[in-house]
Amino acid sequence: HSVESTDMWLTYPPDEEPLYIQYEFDRIYKLHEMLVWNYNSQFEMILGFGLQGVTVQYSVDGTDWTVLGDFELARGTGTVTYTANTVVDLGGAAARYVRLVVNSGWGTMGQYGLSEVRFLYIPAHAREPQPGDGETQVAPATALRWRAGREAVSHEVYLGTDAEVMTLVGTADAATFAPGNLEFGKTYYWQVVEVNEAEEIAAWAGDIWSFATMQYALIDGFESYTDDIDAGEAIFDTWLDGWINNTGSTVGHLESPFAEHTIVRSDHQAMPLFYDNTGSSSYSEAERTFASPQDWTAYGVQALTLYFCGDPDNSAEQMYVKLNGSKILYDGDADDLKETTWRPWTIALADFGVNLRSVTELIIGFEPGGAAGGQGVVYFDDIKLDPTIPAAGRFLVRPWSGDADSGMSSNKTYTHTGKFTGEGVDGEPILAGNGVQFERDRDSSGTNWTLTGPATNVFDTSNPVNVTGDGAALVRGFVYGDQDDSHPVLTLTGLEPGTAYVATFYAVGYGDAGGRFVDVTPGDNPHNPTRIDQNGAGAGNGLLIQYTYTAAGTEMSFAFDALVTGDSWHHYAFSNEVASSN
Predict the structure, then answer these.
(1) Are residues 404 and 325 in the same domain?
(2) Side-chain-side CA neighbours of residue 229 (13 Å)
(3) Angstrom distance (rounded) from CA 364 to CA 57
(4) CB 537, CB 341: distance < 8 Å
């Protein structure tokens, strides 16, 4: 133990009032023992600064005090090997404050000191929660568990989505409780009050803990399928195709690996669904029958979301989904099947009009959008149930070669424009084509927008681009940067709620197609990002990424999360226009 006087407490007594040292805890504890290390400088045996006679008092509020008793504290040894040599039995006293009133010391110098005091307590509060405090991705079916407070007879469980407004949801005899009504995508706060009516203090309120439930329920991520046909583990053994249902579909590749391993949204596999409506069948379907009926009403789920990715050579057919035989048509553009963008399709479950407590069959299909049928392949991944139905807009990704097909017009109403650069004067106008001027930006902010996060690296260059006209200036130079735990976010402000807008991001391929995948998450669909290849048009070729949406409030945001660590979205330029001005 230390013999340095600067490590200890030493003081003179105040005039005309008792000297005491007071300890305050973060809450009320059931105290067991107090261990005391007295004053312990190397000259203590001569000086006698250590306390000798003390009165121990305790309180729950710092106002009303109870006397535990008078005690003599053993003298410090003045050595570095000194250990606590006084133990005071606190007898399970409930206290938040403890006071040692000094009655005498071991010497006559008129100063009094201590080295250290430790308090041991009886764990009357609940502790060691499961899920752990702050844990995320918790299944809604999870039962709450904890280590019970000593001497607790029953356990009151309080729960809520607001730490200030928790309600009693049940009383348990054991240290576990199953709420049963948790929902996906929420943060919950909970507290256990340990109760024993036979004790002086009948209830001990524990800490407030929190956990966050999973954002969705995964129906099929396509990761469990193998190439073992004999074991029935191939993807087409679960998702039946035209070989079984006599439609124009083929699930999986004809040769192993049967699942898709390259064009995937997450993890390692996706489902390739080939459709051919040109032959004897006028429609193509892949169907999955569940081994036991599924309850798609539990835990607050509201929507079915499928992620799909198309192919440029596809025929633009009508995609649809069936649930227990009830059919919902894809409400986006049929040409979405031609885009190599991973986009979400979210369907309100109530729109199917079936018994959602007993879902037995899920079908994905394609039928002719016109008189003649077509063919192609669409990849599916991450079919899931969502707790919300976002009032989300839609992405459109298309090539851009110059002013003629940029979509810019001086007749449109632009609410926001920005050209990121490290050159020129911040805020000055820059000609963007067709009589439209953008705002030059050097500090990642404008009068009604901000770009926050790590996109602070400036890359100004005259790199050749295959975009002609004044618009080429928009893709000469960019800012970039991304981190695994912090992603750039563009926020537009000053929007008019209820107004339809089109946000456009101007880009050029900085490498070959397939080389810069980024998940772009709009603020009106925060749990369902769209994966876009910013190099999708090829090296040097222009690309327009447009998002049509209706403003729910005065702000709209876009977050950019690069798929590959070390990559990032290249922020060249953007605009936001009133949709009715098209």
Answers:
(1) no
(2) 7
(3) 74
(4) no
pLDDT digits (tens, 9 = 90+) for 137-157: 999 999 999 999 999 999 999
Residues 331 and 316 in one domain: yes
Burial, 76: exposed, middle or buried (Cβ in 10 Å; 0-12, 13-18, 19+)? buried
Predicted confidence (pLDDT) per residue in 365-374, tens digit = 999 987 789 9
Coarse DSSP helix, strand, coil percentages of the chain, rounded to the nearest 5 percent: 5, 50, 45
What span, in angstroms and rounded, lies between the C-alpha atoms of 264 and 340? 11
Which sign does the torsion angle of CA 480, 484, 485, 487 carry?
positive
User: How many independent structural domains does the chain possess?
Assistant: 4
Given 90, 122, 154, the domain boundary residue is 122
DSSP type of residue 235? H
What stretches of 185-278 adopt beta strand conformation (E)? Answer: 187-195, 203-205, 209-213, 217-220, 239-240, 249-251, 271-276
The HSE-up count of residue 528 (CA atoms within 13 Å, CB side) is 30
Site of tokens 């995320």:
136
Residue among 13, 4, 104, 84 at smallest CA distance from 44: 4
CATH at residue 551: 2.60.120.430
138 and 202 fall within a common domain? yes
Bridge pairing between strands 489-492 and 530-533? unpaired
Provide the domain limits for residue 575.
394-581
Q: How far from each other are the two terminal CA atoms of the chain, in whole angstroms?
A: 79
Are 457 and 494 part of one and the same domain? Answer: yes
How would you label 413-427 residue by residue, b for 16+ Cβ within 10 Å and e otherwise?
ebbbbbbbbeeeeee
This prediction has a pTM of 0.84
- The CATH number for 347's domain is 2.60.120.260
* Same domain for 206 and 135: yes
Exposed, middle or buried, 503 (CB in 10 Å: 0-12/13-18/19+)? buried
**What's the pLDDT band for 236 if we cut at 50, 70, 90?**
very high
Q: Three-state SS string across 212-250, please?
A: EECCCEEEECCCCCCCCCCCCCCHHHHEECHHHHCCCEE
Please indicate, yes or no, whether residues 237 and 375 belong to a single structural domain of this protein: yes
Which pLDDT tens digit goes with each residue over 173-196?
A: 999 999 988 999 999 999 999 999
pLDDT at position 581 over 60: no
Boundary-marking domain end, from 386, 420, 435: 386
Q: Is the peptide bond preceding residue 399 cis, with omega within 30 degrees of 0?
A: no
Do 545 and 574 belong together in one domain? yes
CATH code at 198?
2.60.40.10
DSSP 336: G
Alpha-carbon distance 381 to 376, whole Å? 17
Same domain, 236 and 321: yes
- What DSSP state is assigned to residue 303? E
Q: What is the Cα–Cα distance from 239 to 251, expressed in whole angstroms?
A: 7
User: What are the tens digits of pLDDT across the range 256-292?
Assistant: 999 999 999 999 999 999 999 998 899 999 999 999 9
Count the neighbouring beta carbons within 10 Å of the beta carbon of residue 515: 16
pLDDT digits (tens, 9 = 90+) for 432-450: 999 999 999 999 999 999 9
How far apart (Å, rounded) are the C-alpha atoms in residues 488 and 560? 6
For tokens 């403890």, the residue is: 98
